[in-house]
Every structure is written in C-alpha cells, then in structure tokens.
Write a structure and sequence with these properties.
GO cellular component, one term: sarcolemma
Protein name: Sarcoglycan delta
Pfam family, one: Sarcoglycan_1
Distance between the termini: 167 Å
Order of helices and strands: HHEEEEEEEEEEEE
Subcellular location: Cell membrane, Sarcolemma; Cytoplasm, Cytoskeleton
Structural class: alpha+beta
Helix content: 10-25%
Transmembrane segments: 34-57
Number of helices: 2
Oligomer: single chain
Strand content: 15-25%
Length: 290
C-alpha cells in the first residue's frame, strides 16, 4: 500500500490550477516535410524503375521461352536471325535450321580448333582474308559415298579422282620427277611435255609408248635427241620416213649426176647422205664423219 499512498500524495501536492499535461508523439515541422519528400521521391524512382523494366522486357522480347532471337527448346538453344558473340562460344553442336545454310562471318578470320583432353590443339583450320590454312597430320577430301578424292600428309599427296584437270595457261610444273602410268590430253587438244631449261627424260622398265592416234607427234630439242634401247631395238614403222636435214657428202662422182642418194652411217653414229653410184660411195664421202 505504500506506493499507492505516495502517488496519491504526489497528486495532492500538485497545484490545482494546472490541468493534466499532454505529450505529443510524432514528427512535426520541417522533419515531416522532408520525410514526405523522400517518400515521394522513392515512389517516383520505383515507378521509373518499373517503367524501364517493362520497356526493356518489351524491347528485348522477353518471353517464357527465351529472350529476343534466343529460344529455349527441348533440344537446346535456338537462335533466329543474325547473332554476334563477343566472347568465346562453347557448344557441343551447332546446326542451322533444316533447309537453310549456316554462315560464319568475321571481320578478320574464322578459326576452328580441335583440342584434346589437355587442351592442346590437334587440328586447326584458319580462313583469313589472304589464305585458307589447315594444320593437321592428314588432310582428306572425300565424296558423299566415301570415295577418296584428295589426301595429303607428310609423305605423299594422293589424287583419287579419275581425271586430274589443270586449267592454267602455263600448264603444270614438276620441279623433280613425276610417276604416272598414263599422260593424256583432252580430246581434240594437243599434249605438250616441255622442259625449257633442262633435259626431259622418260623412263620405264618395260618401255615407253608414244601414240598420237589422230594427229602429229613432234619431238624438238636444242642440242641432242636421243632414243636409246639397251637390250632391244628401236623401230620406226611408218609409210614414209623423212630426214630432210641430213648433211651431204662432198664427193661428186664423174659422169651423169643422179638424184638418188644412200644413207651412210659414220663410226660415231652420225648419218649423212651420199650420192649413189654403181657401188657404195659412203667410203668416199667420209669428210662428214670428221
């Protein structure tokens, strides 16, 4: 009872002229105005942010299936239209829409790398503005059926096509040797084997056959043309055989001159013509053999 008595006494000692005191709770004055201003500013920022978010969603074409040209399907990601990647793209498979082509465009070059488990480059394909370069152990070109058309490695280059056609005006240049079972020109086209500064040698273990079925055959050289057969013979089989530039012997027999000549052979293999007589005149015209 002691606290209650003291409270009563306290109330009785207060002056009777003063009424009960009221204490105001809240924010008033300039503080209240600042608070309302900040709340209004916050509401404006929220509305602007919401409007910008809706505008971005509308422009970027966000849907439940994806964003813009990017669509999320059961098989993966689907891009429609032109797409630009500023950073490396890692994918298991890249394919175009059925019936449409797949294009790779770059301002400088397009590089395709094949890596192993240690991220070491095994095969590389670089397509640039000046050249197309391929790096690998072997390069092959095959048909749809799997037939080999072209292959190249460190040891050899193989052309598997039935016909190799070279359309250059200067022909084909082989710095060293060429091995082939047949060299043939196109129908109604001439075939020319030429060595401008060196010799031209044709060798075969079982013989060399040169055949021109519908035209002429010409062999031209600057110094020597040699036909050599080590174990066999050289046969010239034709309706007419002409040697128009053989030298003539200097001896002229007495009596009536004839227009008949005989072919003489020197010890060194040189041929010359000698005006025929009653007997052989080759022994007389030996000045050509000197």
């Amino acid at each position: 009872m002691m606290p209650q008595e003291q409270y009563t006494h306290h109330r009785s000692t207060m002056p009777g002229s003063e009424g009960p005191q009221v204490y105001k709770v809240g924010i008033y004055g300039w503080r209240k105005r600042c608070l309302y201003f900040f709340v209004l500013l916050l509401m404006i920022l929220i509305l602007v942010n919401l409007a910008m978010t809706i505008w971005i969603l509308k422009v970027m074409n966000f849907t439940i299936d994806g964003m813009g040209n990017l669509r999320i399907t059961e098989k993966g990601l689907k891009l429609e239209g032109d797409s630009e990647f500023l950073q490396p793209l890692y994918a298991k498979e890249i394919q175009s829409r059925p019936g449409n082509a797949l294009y790779f465009k770059s301002a400088r070059n397009v590089t395709v790398n094949i890596l192993n488990d240690q991220t070491k480059v095994l095969t590389q394909l670089i397509t640039g503005p000046k050249a197309v370069e391929a790096y690998g152990k072997k390069f092959e070109v095959k048909t749809v059926s799997g037939k080999l058309l072209f292959s190249a490695d460190d040891n050899e280059v193989v052309v598997g096509a039935e016909r190799l056609r070279v359309l250059g005006a200067e022909g084909t240049v082989f710095p060293k040797s060429i091995e082939t079972p047949n060299v043939r020109a196109d129908p109604f086209k001439e075939l020319r084997l030429e060595s401008p500064t060196r010799s031209l040698v044709m060798e075969a273990p079982k013989g060399v056959e040169i055949n021109a079925e519908a035209g002429n055959m010409e062999a031209t050289c600057r110094t020597e043309l040699r036909l050599e057969s080590k174990d066999g013979e050289i046969k010239l089989d034709a309706a007419k055989i002409k040697l128009p530039r053989l030298p003539h012997g200097s001896y002229t027999p007495t009596g009536t001159r004839q227009k008949v000549f005989e072919i003489c052979v020197c010890a060194n293999g040189r041929l010359f013509l000698s005006q025929a007589g009653a007997g052989s005149t080759c022994q007389i015209n030996t000045s050509v053999c000197l």
